Structure formats: structure tokens, C-alpha cells
Amino acid sequence: MAKISIRDLRHSYVAKPTREDDWALKRISLECRDGGAYALLGPSGCGKTTLLSLISGLLRPTEGRIFFDERDVTEATPEKRNIAQVFQFPVIYDTMSIHDNLAFPLRNRGIEKPEVERRVGEIAKLLELDKVLDRRAAGLTADGKQKISLGRGLVRTDVNVIMFDEPLTVIDPHLKWELRSKLKELHHRTRRTMIYVTHDQTEALTFAEQVVVMKDGLIVQIGTPVELFERPRHTFVGHFIGSPGMNVLPCEIKSGQAFIGEHAVKTVEGRPSGNKHLELGVRPEFVSFTATGLPVDVIKVSDAGRFRIVETKHAPHTIKLLVPEGTEIPASAAHVHFDPAHTQVYEEGWMIA
Amino acid sequence: MNKTLNHKAWVFVLPVVVFVAFNAIIPLMTVVNFSVQESFGDNVFFWAGMRWFEQVLHSERFHAALLRQLLFTGIVLAIQIPLGLAIALAMPRRGPWVSVCLVFMALPLLIPWNVVGAMWNIFALPDIGFLGKLINALGFHYNYTRQPLGAWFTVVLMDVWHWTSLVTLLCYAGLVAIPDAYYQAAKIDGAGRWAVFRHIQLPKLKHVLTIAVLLRFMDSFMIYTEVVVLTGGGPGNATTFLSIDLVKMALGQFDLGPAAAMSLIYFLVIMFSSWLFYTLMMRKEER
Amino acid sequence: MRLRYLVPFIYILFLMLPIYWLLNMSFKTTNEILGQFTLWPRKFTFDNYAKIFTDPTWYWGYINSLIYVLINTALSVSVALPAAYAFSRYHFLGDKHLFFWLLSNRMAPPAVFALPFLQLYSAVGLFDTHIAVALAHTLFNIPLAVWILEGFMSGVPKELDETAYVDGYSFWRFFMKIFVPTIAAGIGVACFFCFMFSWVELLLAKTLTSVEAKPIAATMTRTASTSGYELGLLAAAGVLTIVPGAFVIYFVRNYIAKGFALGRV
Predict the structure, then answer these.
(1) Distance in angstroms (rounded) separating the CA atoms of residues B215 and B224
(2) How many domains are contained in chain A?
(3) Using CB atoms, which chains have 3+ pairs under 8 A with A?
(4) What is the pLDDT of residue B283?
(5) Cis peptide, bond prior to residue A316, ω within 30 of zero
(6) Whole-angstrom distance, CA of residue A326 vs CA of residue A55
(7) B130 contacts in C (CB within 8 Å)?
(8) Is A108 among the domain residues?
(9) Does the CB of B188 have a partner CB in chain A at under 8 Å?
(10) Among A235, A254, A269, where does a domain finish?
(11) What residue spans of B189-256 are helical by DSSP H?
């Protein structure tokens, strides 16, 4: 187990990077505490897989340093870093039995037989594979094989961190939930540092204690799932997390008060440095219908089970709100009110402090 | 793929059947015809039943040719498969040199077989050939035109030169198809080079290696032109393999009965192998 | 540079050696070849190549070979296309057996067919024509083409066909305008292998021809036996037979790996 520190990491796949676009990772600094569960969340191309490969040692960074506890491992190979990785598709040794698959990493390190048996038995029980240890690994379903991949990481006692690279990609949808819960349970039981890369917010938000949201090679926000939801520090986080995403409307600040057009809106405290490109963000959960407020036209109502998603228009912008079951929805013209505690102002995309 | 049942598909297949049947069935019928008849010239034929088959199967000449063939195929397989695999393993998996290497390696496969034979014929001559001169200069007394051992050595070397690339190209394609994640996982698991070969590469190459072995088995069993141009089957019959023996019999003689019988036996051996090939391949794909 | 890269390097050196020797001889006079042992030509000469390019008996050999190879490739691949499609998309009576029978012809020893072919093609009056050799080679090239094309076609999901029909395409329009471009790589690979096997096969080519359609191989053997050993000339002729092959590989070099990757050679 180890604490992982990443300092000013920059990486480019191009031999001689010149423009900003040549950098896959623009500047990343991150601290992962020992035994924590982290998710790297972001759209394709944001650099999360690159970051994972750099942490595991499969890539050497162009600039910056990586530390495991106080040890500088930037130059170390994956074997020397003592990491484990679960890949997008199950990687198992087809010719060996499940037992031998789990034992493989231990035998390669010269661990004594009784110890090997003990560890394999323990982990097999944890993964509910103890009854089928003698079966050939190739005969398992995809989720079973992923469990073995994970198991090979768990059998080793010297593992500093276990990395997951979109591990549920090939799993059947109805099994995804099961495997997800299993992973969370395993984290609780083994208390290993785990880093989970995904583009799926549900996976990230259910697994992780801390979510690292990335976009275009930069970390946009690090926080607990609740923090990310309630206090998105960037409009991108607002868009990406939550379904439907945050409403974003252009606004202005006049004498310390936010205005959408002519209408004053109460927001969370904050002072912008200038008056350019200001936006107001509020999640549909925190928008409600009122008698007076911002005028809107009701366009569409979608049923989402326990609540309804109402799409309204304050020309030319769309504002969505969530209305619980049973509440009346106005027919056409209406007014909406934003909860001041959850309405933020953003400058150039970033929340003003 | 879910195939739909449609007997009208025969229309699509008909042209192929016509061409192949014309070339396969009619000649084969001719051969079968000859193999069960005896002729005394002037186009007069008598039914001979299994006589030719028995004669061939009991003839020492056939046995000798068969034995030589089996020995040749055995040696050639034993060299080409491991060698081809080793070269494929040693090649870089990516990079600018890969296509260059592949192009050079493919070249021997595209040389007309008589040119291959002629090339080696001269290349191995002890007086004006580079190889011949080299081996003699190293102290060995080498002359493939006179020594059966020398002839075998040259024939085997020529075949290795000619066909190993086929094995290499097949194995290389198989290796490149293995996703990087397997190598990365092996690294993380602390597996050494040998373990990676035994547990990852070899299992994943099983399909490709089967094809390579069976292709080389069959093609080497049918070898004709290169050997004829190189040694003519000699010295004496030292390198007279099955095809060479058959052609000598067929094109040189009046009575086609024995030649036809031998053709059929020869053909059946290969049919059996191709059945084996087909079954193994289809079984693998059903998995 | 890793040390193990030495292995392919040495192997390629080994492969190039006999070819170099041939090249070497082609630029020498026969006297020099027989008279002394030299690693490169002391008296460099283009005479051998000149002879081949100017003497009709020689250059017709190449042209004849090229003609029947190209006819064969075009024939084999175009006939194989619909058949491969049928094997890939449909079940029909006897399909598995038919496929097996086709493959078995690829495995047929040409030696078995030498005499019967001679009789057959003489009987239909096709002896000593390019068509004869082109047709004879279809015996093993058509099954090969069908095998390769079927492999590539199976990689294209049936949904493509179905979508096209829903969109109103007739079968042939779909086949020519949509399907064929999709498997272009497969067609390339099939053409490559048909070309290769027809270009290099010589037992049948020699048996079925004598003067009109004589392939270069026959011309070369005639030279070797009748006019004594005109080695320089032979060498030049040999080098020139390697050229088309080299060209073809160069053009399909990007598909070589892909083609072998199917494992269907």
C-alpha cells in the first residue's frame, strides 16, 4: 500500500511537441492517499488512460515526477513499482487453471508453496471462485475472467496500487452492477489503494471516494461524488456529471449582483475578476416553478419515473428542471426560481470564488 | 454469422464448380480409368482390377521413393517450423523496419520454382558457385552432383531458403494479433521471457502454427520442379521424391497403368492429410 | 537496437545471397563465369540483358507467362467472388462437402495431373495456348481465392447487406457498389496469392505448352540443355523473372501482414 504523489506531470506522444495540442497531459499534480479509492473520470481523449499508464510504469513521462510514498519511481519499470492492473478486456492465461492463474504472480516471485496456497485460497474465497479453482480459466465468462485478473493483483501482498482501465467494458450490462458492487466491497475489505479509470459517471461515482474529473489533459476538479454534484467547480463538471447535466446560462454582474438579461438572480457568494464570459450554473434539481421569477415557456415534459424532466425556454436558452411526482406543471408560460445555495457563477468556465 | 438456408445459392457457386470440376474430375477419371486397365498398345485395353495397385504398393521403387519423401518432409518440417517461429519472435512488433523486412522475406516465395532450382544449381556448384566454393574452402569435400549426402544437404538447404518465410510471415501475423495488454499483464505479473513465450505466445499461435505445419507438410510432399532443376533426382535416385518418381514413370513410358495407380495412391495420401487439415481447422473455429 | 534484431537481419542476408549471386552472374560474360571465380563482375556487361530484350524467343517467354498469369488471376478471383459470398452468407445442400472438395484440389499434387491434363487439353484443342495454362491453374487457384475471400467476407456483418436491401438496392448493385469496396483488401490478397501461385507453377505450364504459349521457364531449360551452358544469359533471365514478383510484393506490402493474419494462405 502506498500514497501516490504526482508532481507537475506532462506527457506528449509526439517526439518534439511544439503546440499545446501535442501534449496529451498538460500539467497534472495529484495526491492519492494510501488505501483510497479514486476514479479518473472524463470523456475519451481527456488523458485518463495516459495518466494510468504513467502511474503503472507502462509509459515514461515526458516531464514531471511520480512518487510512491517517498520513493521516486518515475524511472522504475512496472515490476519495480509493485502495481497490479486490470485491463479493458480480461487478460488471463488460457492454458492454466484458475488456481494456477492466481498463483502465477506469486510463483514468479519465488514465494514458498504453503504461502502460495494460503494466499490463493484466501483471495479465491473473496472472489467467490474457491469452488472452481481446478477449472480451466478459459472456460469462464467475461466477468469471471475479470475477477481472475483482479485476483492476480490481490494475491500479492506487496502491491502498492491496483489500477483499473475501464474494466467493465466487455461485461454484460446486467452483470456490471454486480461486479461494481463487488469491487467496492473488495476495496473495503482489503484497503488497497485503487485507481479506476472510466468515462462512465455511474461507475466512477459509485466506486470512488474521490473522483478526479479530467478534460483535455488537465484535472478539472477533485472531490467526493457529493462535492462534484453540489459544487461543480467547472461548467464541464456540471455538464458531465448528473443526468440531465447542469443548466448553464450566460449572465452579467452589475454592482455585485448577477443578472440574466434584466432579471436579478441570487447566487453563491463570489467575485469575478472581470466581466467577460460569465455564466450562471444551476442543476435541474435546484430549479423550481414559482409565481414570480425568471419568465420561461414550457416546451416539453419527459417522464423519468419518480420525477419528470421539464424542458423550458428562456429565449434563446434552454432551462431544465426536475419536478417530483404529483407536483403541478404549468401549461405554457411560467416562472422559475433558482436555489441560491446551489447557483454558481462561472468565469471562463471556472467557478468564481 | 447466422447463415440463412437458401438452395438458390448454388447459382453463385456454379461457375466455380464448373471450372474446378473440368480440371479435376475429367483428368481424375482418366487416371482412374488407366489405373484399372492394362494396355498392350494400339489402344487395346483389358481390365486389370487391382493389379497395378498391388504392383505399386509392393514395388521397391515406390517404397524407396516414399521413404525418401517422408525423410525429406520430416527434416524440412523439423527445421522450418522452429526456425520460422524463431525469426518471427525476433522481429520488431512495430516500426518502420517491419514492412521492409517483410518485403525482403517474401521475395523467395515469389520466385518461379525453376529459377529457384537453377539459382541453387549454380550457387552450390563447387567450382563457380559461392556456396560450393565456401564449403570446400572450409575444408569439407562437397560436390552435390556426385555425393548423395551433398545432394540431400543442398536440397534441404534450398527448401529452407525457399519456404521458411511462409512460416515466418504466418507466425508474425499471429504474434502481432496478440493485444499489448497481455504483454503488459505478464510484465506486471513478473513473468520472464520464457514464461511469456510458453503461456501467452505459444497458446495464441496454435491456430497459425497448425496451418503452417499442414501447409508445409503438403507442399513439401508434392515438391517437384525445384528438385528436378537442382539435382534431376540424383545423383542416381538419391533425391528422387514421390512427384519426381511419378513423372518419370508417367511421361516416359507406354503403360500408364502403374503410373496411374501410383497417382491415385499419392493423391489419396494427400486427401487424407487435407481431411485432417479441414477437420482440425473447422474444429478450432467452432470453439 | 536490440540484439535480437540481428536474427532477422542475418536471415535476410541469407535470403539475399543466392539472389545476389544470380545478379552477379547476369552481369558477367559466360567466359568470366566459367573461367574464374569472382565476387563481382570484373568485366561488367549488359549483353545478357540486351539479348533477352531483343531476342523474341526470350522476351516472348515473359510475355506468355504474364499473359496466362493475368488471365488466370482475373478469372479465378471473379469466379470466386460470388461463390465465396454464397459460402459466407448461406447454408445450402452439400455446402460443407463442396467447400472441402474445393480445398482438396488446392492440395492436389500437380504431378498427378501432368499427363491427364495433357490428354484433356489436347482433346479439346487447347494445347499450347495461354488459355490452357490459365484454365489449368484455376484448379488450385479458384479454391484458394474462394477460401481467402470467404474469410474476409465473413468479417463483414450481414447487417450491411440487409441495410442495403432496406435502402432499396438490388442485389448486384449492392454487391458491386457496397460490398466489393468493403472487402477490397481481401480481393487484393486473393489476387496476390493467385498471381503468386500461377507465376511460380511450372510443371503444368510446361506440359501444356510447346511453342506459341511457351512460358519463360521452358525457354530457360531449353537454353540450359541445347546450347550448352550460357550461364550469363540464364542468370539474366532468372533475375528478370524475379522482377514481377518483387513489384507485386512492393505494392501489396501493407496487406501482407493482414492477409497472412487471416491465416488463410
Answers:
(1) 16
(2) 2
(3) B
(4) 65
(5) yes
(6) 50
(7) 17-18, 21, 39
(8) yes
(9) yes
(10) A235
(11) 193-196, 202-204, 206-221, 225-231, 242-252
Rounded distance between C-alpha atoms, residue B105 and residue B125, angstroms: 25
- Which secondary-structure segment (H or E) carries A116? helix A113-126
Contacts of residue C43, defined as CB under 8 A and 6 or more positions apart, other chains included, come to: C28, C29, C32
For residue C220, list chain B residues with Cβ-Cβ distance below 8 A. Answer: 114-115, 118
Q: If you ran DSSP here, which 8-state letter would residue A62 be given?
A: S
* Residue of A13, A56, A87, A160 best to disrupt the B interface, most CBs of B under 10 A: A87
Q: What is the pLDDT of residues B122-154, one digit of tens each?
A: 888 888 888 888 888 888 888 888 888 999 999
Chain A touched by B95 (CB under 8 Å): no
CA atoms within 13 A on the CB side of C259: 27
Instruction: Give me the residue from B1, B222, B246 closest to C88, CB to CB.
Output: B1
Domain extent, residue A113, equals: 4-235
Asked if A59 reaches chain B (Cβ–Cβ under 8 Å), the answer is no
Q: Residue A261 CB: number of other CB atoms within 10 A? A: 14
Structure-block grid coordinates of residue A178: 454486480
Bridge partners (DSSP) of residue A213 are A41, A221
Query: Could you give the CA distance from residue C113 to residue C116 in angstroms, rounded to a whole number?
Result: 5
In a domain, A27, yes or no: yes
Q: At what angle do helices C184-200 and C130-154 cross, to 10 degrees?
A: 150
Output the domain CATH number for residue A197: 3.40.50.300
User: Which of the residues in chain B have pLDDT under 70?
Assistant: 1-2, 40-43, 252-255, 274, 277-278, 281-287
Contacts of A96 in chain B (CB under 8 A): 199
Instruction: State pLDDT tens for residues C12-32.
Output: 999 999 999 888 888 888 777
pLDDT tens digits for B216-266?
Answer: 888 898 899 899 989 888 788 888 998 888 888 777 666 677 888 888 888
ipTM of the prediction: 0.83
A162 and A116 in a single domain? The answer is yes
DSSP states along C5-23: GHHHHHHHHHHHHHHHHHH
| Residue B96 sits at the chain A interface (C-beta within 8 Å) | no
Nearest Cα neighbor of C67 from C216, C224, C257, C242 is C216
Report pLDDT for B286. 46
Amino acid symbol at C175: F
Give the H/E segment covering residue A299.
strand A294-303
pTM of the model: 0.79
- Nearest to B92, CA basis, from C227, C9, A57, A107: C9
- Give tens-digit pLDDT for C79-109: 999 999 988 888 888 888 888 888 778 777 8
- Beta-carbon contacts of C101 under 8 Å, excluding residues fewer than 6 positions away, are none
| Contact residues for B185 (Cβ-Cβ < 8 A; gap 6+) | A85, A87, A91, A149, A152
Residue B277 is predicted with a pLDDT of: 66
Smallest Cβ–Cβ distance between A89 and the set B181, B184, B189 belongs to B181
Instruction: Return residues 249-278 of B near A (CB < 8 Å).
Output: none
| Domains defined for chain C, CATH in brackets | 1-45 (no CATH), 63-261 (1.10.3720.10)
Q: Is chain A adjacent to chain B, meaning 3+ CB pairs within 8 angstroms?
A: yes
For residue B167, the chain C residues in CB contact (below 8 A) are: none
Of the candidates A77, A83, A87, the beta carbon closest to that of B181 is on A87
Asked if the peptide bond before residue B235 counts as cis, ω within 30 degrees of 0, the response is yes
Nearest to B20 by CA among C203, C75, C74, C199: C75
Q: In chain B, what are the domains?
A: 60-286 (1.10.3720.10)
